[in-house]
């Protein structure tokens, strides 16, 4: 099958793309899912591989019965798919699975690297980072230097390479590592990883890349960019329920002590002492792994590798331009981050409609247009505050006020539309039309909603209960009734 045909087949394969929900007008229709930066939908053929594996299920770490042997083989295969997908030479790199997403990987690496090189007490982090690639480093290291981005106000974003150079020159071999995102989860701004690696390696620092927002959107080559450690979440690349993945140079892993201990990662244990294994990835995978999730993730990566991530990127670039220009052209709509022509970006677009709080935009897009977007600060509070600074000042709000009250929280955020492989041109047309529609009847919409919690909104008359949408108990009830 050609790459193009495979890509088309995969695009049509996602579970839940067309799930129907009710709207205010009393109708029911298929949703438009534009919340992929939070979590992507499941790719059906990968789910089927995981489902089939369950008919052979057994835990790994044994060769002596058929199922355990099969599980071990399939789990090894999943590790190989991870390496192949990020173009990491297996001689030099090792992949392992950790936790339920990228967060586990960052905590592990921060804990281990800070102990391994205590004489290098400084780590660098960009101001764009998701809290998951910021707080673990703050927690485990003596000093964190935050590297600013280029531009200002609404166009802030994209790592400022001149400032980064100056910071490397100032702190030199005191720097243990730099942790940067491959692409922002707020604006999609892409980091020039090869250049960052060169700067880091010139002073003997490691480069940790948060690929959570890049992995499903653009090709990644660890070999080419000489990345030391790369971390991503399987649920952000079409395998919800899969673990986080860490790919690291073997040299780095061999130089650190594993941060997690337990079964499967030791050669022997006595009451007085224990001997962690030198075998990778076992040394980094304490406990019974998420085998099904790992295999489903391996299946997604294999399929996308065959289809070609360059083709995925090509498709998305056109869609980004269309959505960015479409939203930007609507009167009263602000879009955030550098222009796509200035800094390359992935398919994540944060925006606000004048006079709408971010929570109201997300609620009204859902209730009136069946469009699912996320809102808030997206666990990137410092970055979002910087992007919103001018607009908040204009409202007499201090963006940096700690513990802001609910009224401020309601203003301090954005709506975010984020694309996936399943996103169609028609989805984006619907988004642009829906935003135009809301912007054009602001007073009516405002009168129909009331605030809830610190930044939410709910319609005064249209409130389907969560259990009307999906209810595990109802499903179990059906099962019990049918088997009675
Ligand atoms: C850029 C980025 N890094 C890290 C994370 C954390 O991922 P997880 O919650 O899967 O651990 C996210 C999640 O939204 C993200 O967008």
Secondary structure elements and their pairing?
Blueprint: H1 3-11, E1 14-15, E2 20-22, E3 28-30, E4 32-33, E5 42-43, H2 44-54, H3 66-85, E6 93-98, H4 102-116, E7 122-126, H5 135-140, E8 143-147, H6 161-171, E9 175-181, H7 193-202, E10 206-210, H8 222-225, E11 229-233, E12 244-249, H9 250-255, E13 266-269, E14 274-276, H10 291-307, H11 309-328, E15 333-335, E16 348-353, H12 358-369, E17 371-372, E18 374-376, H13 381-394, H14 406-411, E19 414-418, H15 425-440, H16 442-448, E20 449-452, E21 456-459, H17 466-469, H18 472-482
Parallel strand pairs: 4-17, 7-8, 7-9, 9-10, 10-11
Antiparallel strand pairs: 1-5, 2-3, 6-12, 11-12, 13-14, 15-16, 16-19, 18-19, 20-21
The structure holds pyridoxal-5'-phosphate.
Description of the molecule:
The protein has helices at 3-11, 44-54, 66-85, 102-116, 135-140, 161-171, 193-202, 222-225, 250-255, 291-307, 309-328, 358-369, 381-394, 406-411, 425-440, 442-448, 466-469, 472-482; strands at residues 14-15, 20-22, 28-30, 32-33, 42-43, 93-98, 122-126, 143-147, 175-181, 206-210, 229-233, 244-249, 266-269, 274-276, 333-335, 348-353, 371-372, 374-376, 414-418, 449-452, 456-459. The chain has a seven-stranded mixed β-sheet with strand order 6-12-11-10-9-7-8, with helices on both faces. Strands 15-16-19-18 form a four-stranded antiparallel β-sheet. It has a two-stranded antiparallel ribbon with strand order 1-5. The protein is 41% helix and 18% strand. The mean pLDDT is 96. A hairpin with a 4-residue loop joins strand 13 (266-269) and strand 14 (274-276). It has two domains: 3-41 and 308-469, Aspartate Aminotransferase, domain 1; 47-307, Aspartate Aminotransferase, domain 2 (3-Layer(aba) Sandwich), CATH 3.40.640.10. With 484 residues, the protein is an alpha/beta fold. The structure holds pyridoxal-5'-phosphate. Residues 37-38, 101-103, 130, 132-133, 181, 185, 210, 212-213, 233, 235, 244 line the site of pyridoxal-5'-phosphate. Pyridoxal-5'-phosphate binds next to helix 4.
